[in-house]
User: Which sequence fits this backbone?
């Protein structure tokens, strides 16, 4: 459950592994991390928001702090998504 509702997210195994690493480094559950990403994602679908978040975390060379979620490029912004509809949650 994310934000009180059942959610299905399709991600590649590598993204799940990365999410687990980021959550562990932040001392939180994967569910809590996804909830934070979900609350900051704006119009972007959840699967895409997770991928962008993970990419940003690894580009920065660290797992971002919770306060920086809304500062992530693309998360929480209404950007056009190529291939929208694939892997939607």
Assistant:
């Amino acid at each position: 459950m994310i934000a009180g509702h059942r959610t299905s997210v399709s991600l590649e195994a590598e993204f799940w592994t990365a999410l687990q690493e980021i959550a562990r480094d932040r001392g939180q559950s994967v569910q809590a991390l996804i909830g934070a990403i979900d609350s900051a994602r704006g119009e972007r679908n959840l699967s895409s928001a997770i991928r962008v978040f993970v990419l940003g975390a690894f580009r920065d060379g660290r797992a971002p702090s919770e306060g920086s979620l809304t500062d992530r490029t693309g998360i929480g912004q209404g950007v056009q998504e190529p291939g929208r509809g694939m892997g939607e949650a």
Observations:
- The radius of gyration is 12 Å.
- Helices lie at 13-26, 30-40, 46-59.
